[in-house]
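User: Can you predict the 3D structure for this chain?
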Amino acid sequence: MKKWLYQSMIELGNGKTSSAALKRFTQSTISQKAVPGFIKAYNIELGEVERPSGQYTSLHDFFTRRLKTPARPVANAELVSPVDGRVEIHGAIQNDSRFAVKGISYSLAELLGSEQSAQRYANGQYAILYLSPADYHRIHSPVDGQVLNQYMLGEKSYPVNRLGLTYGKSPISGNRRLITELETVNGRLLVVKVGAMYVNSIELTEFGTEWQKGHEVAYFSFGSTVALFFEGRDIQFDEKIKDGNHIKVGEPLAHMV
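Assistant: Here is the predicted structure, written as structure tokens:
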């Protein structure tokens, strides 16, 4: 009953009209007045932000803020975090190409839109990283790699917070998402950028075929999740990677065994 109620309420306001209206507001100069309240509500640390808060022209401009150059050093690890966010869950992909988040079982084939692609990762591992509204929302490459495939799937999006993950309509595999497959020296890696409700956009900033570890590649507009899928099990997650822990861009995520 809770799940049905939640989904029904979300559907009432999750249309193109409401999303477009919110997008217009957040990108307007009028929304600049909301920036101080947003900073206070989410207790955002301004010392590492690239510009003084008064120089942001809109709420969207602040939300997609860049940081000062030394704010996110890149660790000497094979795989580093691509985002600032909470480790929602990490572990092994099941042999039937399924993975679990908040008690919900997801099909990797549905997420990728391809059974063949899913089979490649059937014996691999995964990590789900959730970005709250307070987090830095630019995405960086977790590894050096060559872009093999990049495509968008999905239209509408449910919230990707804890309520959304628990009661939403399979938000990880059903939301609008941009999928990038990389070839690395340690095998293939999927970087799945999952949009969130309302302002459901994922903007690329890297259009080349080579990704460099730690370099910015994209950003989110309001709320989001990044899901990583590793081809094999020759990786070991860093000892600090625990479900529920917060991680920042460039910090160690996993090492080769």
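The mean pLDDT is 84. The chain has two domains: 2-63, 74-256.
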